[in-house]
């Protein structure tokens, strides 16, 4: 109707191309993106058309990036940046491109270049009072600070991004709940759990008010996670169940809804509500066979089965009964599969030398005795926390905590204790997440208790108590404090039984 090179035609083509890309139809999206760039480039490049050509090239780069061709996308971004005159770098379009370009630089570990680009673009956006752009750039700045280990700086950038966005959009806007959730992440990992909960509660409140169910679901899941980390287990279980109901309403995949429900069961169990937990776990177990048997769901299936096993273990512990045989073998198999991955390249080569030596002992000292052992609830919870660790790849302790938990489930607490020792001896500068030294000491104490090495376990618990009593010097999570109290009680009971003998 308007012609192949009319602006209205090209804008429609741009929207269609972006839609294809977001639906992962990358080949078609790329073909249209290339055509779009060619058409805009064929027009006389007056200022308005030159801007549209720039935007088309930016869209093309984003599609390449979404398709997973990250090196190619970065090279194209570098070429576009080099060909853009300085007088056009004050446009909002340049600012949005700089945001994506900085993201690609960060992903390529070119942190100094990303930081310099963000600072320059932020300065221009501040001069122009472009609040929407300032907020977006600060979000990318926070991710760069996070990757560099500056969690406090990351938090401050996100808080400024949030306040800037509120001053632009208003508090009750669809852009605000995701920002509250994003602010909660570094607060949570810094063990500022109550502040993290408050931001998630605000996200839930706004999402309800504006009637955005998808945003409400995302906010509810984040709230449940942060409530659990704050040891507010009953509230967390309620949020998990509400998330499952919302997921049903929005016709989310079964796996996501079952995950919400099993997390609710786990939190009920941790709150001591074993009967309710078991009823919910039974409901999940009945639906688990309906989960698609494909590779995409294999990790989710592992998460669900681990949580179900934990609920079973807690319930049987209360009645002094063993975990059913099928659950015991299933958990052992899950741990063994992960251990075999750690023993194979490339994961094996990335482990510290002493950790590789510990793994070698597993093979050289004969078969595991897992077939004659019932994993304890504490060991299952350690594994559960490890595989659900949002920051697994962020901190070097994440992989080691996962590996040690696997060894515990394969009845090798002796080797698990060696892995925890590796974390304990790590320099503080090498660990990004506060409290990980303390957490490793507690997990090592738990492993020592399972071997009845009460004296060594008591020494570790004494060390932790001293660290916890140094107000302000060691910020630890409520989860860590709860683990310490449970282990103290367990140690006292075992010591009392030992004296009676």
Record the SSE blueprint.
Elements (H helix, E strand, L loop, with lengths): L6 H16 L3 H16 L5 H20 L3 H14 L8 H16 L3 H17 L3 H17 L3 H19 L6 H14 L3 H18 L2 H17 L3 H17 L4 H17 L3 H14 L10 H21 L6 H18 L4 H4 L2 H12 L12 H11 L8 H14 L3 H12 L11 H15 L3 H16 L8 H23 L1
Helix pairs in contact: 1-2, 1-3, 2-3, 3-4, 3-5, 4-5, 5-6, 5-7, 6-7, 7-8, 8-9, 9-10, 9-11, 10-11, 11-12, 12-13, 13-14, 13-15, 14-15, 15-16, 15-19, 16-20, 18-21, 19-20, 20-21, 21-22, 22-23, 22-24, 23-24
Overall structural class, as computed from helix and strand content, comes to: mainly alpha
Highest-level CATH class of the domain at 354-367 and 387-501: Mainly Alpha
Beta percentage is under 5%
CATH third-level topology of the domain at 354-367 and 387-501: Serine Threonine Protein Phosphatase 5, Tetratricopeptide repeat
CATH architecture of the domain at 354-367 and 387-501: Alpha Horseshoe
Oligomer classification: single chain
The whole-number mean of residue pLDDT values reads 91
Unreliable parts? none
The percent of residues in helical segments reads over 70%
Protein architecture, described:
The protein is mainly α. The protein has a domain at 354-367 and 387-501: Serine Threonine Protein Phosphatase 5, Tetratricopeptide repeat, CATH 1.25.40. The chain is 75% helix and 0% strand. It contains 24 helices and no strands. It has helices at 7-22, 26-41, 47-66, 70-83, 92-107, 111-127, 131-147, 151-169, 176-189, 193-210, 213-229, 233-249, 254-270, 274-287, 298-318, 325-342, 347-350, 353-364, 377-387, 396-409, 413-424, 436-450, 454-469, 478-500. The longest helix has 23 residues, at 478-500. It is elongated and about 95 Å long. The mean pLDDT is 91.
């Amino acid at each position: 109707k308007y012609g192949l090179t009319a602006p209205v035609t090209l804008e429609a083509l741009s929207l269609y191309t972006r839609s294809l890309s977001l639906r992962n139809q990358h080949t078609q999206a790329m073909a249209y993106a290339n055509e779009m760039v060619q058409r805009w480039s064929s027009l006389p490049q007056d200022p308005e058309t030159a801007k549209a050509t720039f935007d088309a090239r930016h869209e093309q780069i984003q599609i390449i990036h979404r398709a997973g061709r990250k090196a190619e996308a970065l090279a194209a971004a570098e070429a576009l940046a080099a060909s853009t005159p300085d007088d056009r770098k004050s446009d909002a379009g340049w600012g949005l491109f700089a945001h994506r370009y900085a993201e690609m630089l960060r992903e390529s570990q070119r942190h100094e270049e990303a930081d310099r680009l963000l600072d320059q673009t932020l300065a221009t956006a501040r001069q122009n009072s472009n609040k929407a752009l300032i907020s977006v750039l600060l979000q990318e700045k926070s991710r760069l600070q996070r990757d560099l280990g500056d969690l406090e700086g990351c938090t401050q950038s996100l808080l400024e991004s949030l306040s800037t966005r509120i001053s632009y959009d208003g508090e009750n806007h669809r852009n605000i709940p995701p920002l509250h959730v994003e602010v909660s992440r570094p607060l949570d990992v810094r063990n500022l759990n109550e502040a993290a909960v408050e931001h998630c509660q605000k996200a839930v409140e706004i999402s309800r008010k504006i009637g955005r169910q998808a945003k409400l679901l995302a906010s509810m899941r984040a709230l449940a996670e942060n409530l659990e980390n704050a040891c507010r287990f009953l509230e967390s279980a309620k949020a998990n169940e509400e998330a499952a109901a919302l997921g049903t309403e929005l016709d989310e995949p079964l796996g996501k809804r079952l995950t919400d429900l099993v997390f609710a069961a786990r939190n009920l169990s941790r709150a001591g509500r074993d009967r309710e937990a078991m009823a919910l776990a039974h409901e999940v177990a009945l639906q688990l066979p309906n989960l698609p048997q494909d590779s995409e769901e294999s990790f989710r299936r592992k998460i669900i089965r681990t949580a179900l096993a934990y609920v079973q273990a807690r319930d049987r512990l209360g009645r002094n009964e063993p975990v059913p045989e099928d659950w015991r073998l299933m958990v052992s198999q899950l741990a063994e599969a992960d251990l075999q991955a750690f023993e194979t390249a490339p994961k094996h080569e990335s482990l510290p030398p002493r950790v590789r030596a510990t793994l070698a002992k597993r093979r050289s000292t004969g078969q595991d005795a897992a077939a004659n052992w019932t994993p304890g609830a504490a060991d299952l919870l350690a594994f559960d926390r490890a595989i659900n660790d949002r920051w697994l790849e962020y901190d070097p302790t994440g992989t080691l905590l996962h590996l040690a938990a696997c060894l515990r489930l394969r009845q090798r607490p002796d080797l698990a204790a060696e892995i925890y020792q590796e974390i304990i001896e790590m320099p503080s500068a090498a660990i990004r997440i506060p409290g990980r030294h303390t957490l490793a000491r507690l997990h090592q104490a738990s492993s020592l208790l399972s071997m009845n090495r009460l004296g060594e376990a008591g020494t570790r618990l004494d060390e932790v108590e001293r660290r916890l009593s140094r107000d302000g010097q060691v910020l630890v999570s409520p989860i860590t404090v709860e683990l310490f109290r449970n282990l103290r009680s367990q140690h006292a009971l075992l010591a009392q039984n030992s004296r009676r003998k």
